[in-house]
Amino acid sequence: MTAYSDLMAFQRDTEALGQIAGRLGWDQETMMPRGAADQRGDETGAIEGILHARRTDPRIGEWLEAAEPQDEVERAQLRHIRRTYEKQTRIPAALATEIARVTSVAQGVWAGARRAEKVADFLPTLARVVALKREEAAALAGNGDLYDALLDNYEPGATAESIGAMFDRLRPRLVALADRILGAPKPAALTGQFPADGQMRVTRDLAQAFGYDWNRGRLDLAVHPFSSGSGNDVRITTRVVEEEPFNCFYSTIHETGHACYEQAIDQAYLLTPLGNGVSMGVHESQSRIYENQMGRSRPFTGWLFGRMQAEFGALSVRDADAFHAAVNRVQPGYIRTEADEVHYNLHVMLRFDLERQLIGGALEVADLEAAWNARFLKDFGAAVDRPSHGVLQDVHWSVGLFGYFPTYSLGNVYAGCLNQAMRAAVPGIDAGLARGDASAATGWLRQNLQRHGGLYEPGEVVARACGFAPSEGPLLDYLEAKFAEIYRL
Ligand code: ZN
Fold first, then answer.
1. Checking DSSP bridges between strand 227-228 and strand 235-238, what pairing results, if any?
2. For residue 399, what pLDDT is reported?
3. Of 15, 48, 136, 255, which is the active-site residue?
4. Tens of pLDDT along 428-455?
5. N or C terminus of the chain with fewer C-beta within 10 Å?
6. Which tens digit of pLDDT belongs to each residue from 194-246?
7. CATH 1.10.1370.30 intervals, the chain
8. CA torsion sign, 75 to 80 to 85 to 86?
């Protein structure tokens, strides 16, 4: 046995245990009986303890030193293992335990404060989370920037400076586009009641249309849609609101994008560090291109219009054009997860600036709500009417996810680039989408990006697929062209 094969054998069991922990999380959101919550906390804690011990096992350091990688794949495996090992061993065990303990309680406190619309109920807990994440960032950063150290957990190689510069270039054209759209006549929304069983039949067809492999996956209901697992067991969830069928349908397409990425990764990487999507930004690029550039395109909404009529009878919108406009309605709103393609990134910019100030120490938790509300008024032209529409709307900060939000926008930017490259390379994408068949597009994404898993760095895998360095230009061009047509600008 060589050091490399010893290390990979050890790593394989760690990856398998990580998948098991993930499946416990899936169960908790879908199937678990209510009364099992406390016991599940103990079970999850036990497996997380084992995982932490394995990820910081000193033998990893020895194996890494002795290993001699033979090719590009082995070098990439070692790069991932080394990165995780160095991060995990820099964080003192007591701090890691305290973060896990505080954030698991904080999520419940946040949910209670949100229900009660009382920011003050959450602030002491949030202050504790921020303090702990600052400690973690300091341990990771050495002499570097605190926020960058946290961002690197989700998007290796990205920095606050590079993200900030991207936002500075995105903002003026997005704001100008939103202003032009809001000055134009508003298309009608789709109204009516859409029974849950019918929505579930349509939503299964949507996952099918985008290439979800049912033999290695399943679809269930959850409060917040998500995708979970990798390799040959990748599960998705959706939700049903009878008056809002697009909520269900576009959540399903989004999660199908995440899931198809995981299902498409080269089987040789199964249960290794390369066997997962490479970063949150690249992951989000897949969910977004499925949901938006394909799912909200005119050819595909034409097919969905027919499918919905077949399921629900006559609809409130008269034809496929009106249906397309209803799917793509632009409206400034309070809630990020309900935002249209034009406003979405403005919601992310607000969070990015505030969380960067919180972690950097320029903003106190006590002043967060006022800062949020002032910024929202400035960016969206409306006063926040209640905390659940403002600073309490997202779960992320309560569970310590600082540095995560910008990966949503990076995903949008990458999706814009991939869409441009894919459409230049593959003829017949729209003809397929008009028949409810996305295989020409998903085949290109599988071949050029998804199968590589963690082999290349995030920006690199996108650049290789596109044939050019990613930038925000293609996303902005796509948005301007699409909405100029719908709103006759
Ligand atoms: Zn997503």
1. antiparallel
2. 92
3. 255
4. 999 999 999 999 999 999 999 999 999 9
5. N
6. 999 999 999 999 999 999 999 999 999 998 899 999 999 999 999 999 999 99
7. 160-190+259-487
8. positive
Q: Is the whole-model pTM more than 0.90?
A: yes
Query: 444: closest CA among 411, 421, 470?
Result: 421
Whether 68 is a known active-site residue: answer no
Q: In angstroms, what is the span from residue 258 Cα to ligand 1's centroid?
A: 7
- Per-residue tokens: 332: 């400034």
- Structural domain 160-190+259-487, CATH architecture: Orthogonal Bundle (1.10)
Return d(Cα 200, Cα 358) in angstroms, integer. 41
pLDDT band at 93 (very low <50, low <70, confident <90, very high): confident
Ligand 1 centre to CA of 444 (Å) is 20
Query: Cβ-count burial of 400 within 10 angstroms (0-12 exposed, 13-18 middle, 19+ buried)?
Result: buried
CA 271, 273, 278, 284 dihedral sign is: positive
DSSP secondary structure string, 356-386? HHHHHTSS-GGGHHHHHHHHHHHHHSS---S
Q: Alpha-carbon distance 314 to 383, whole Å? A: 38
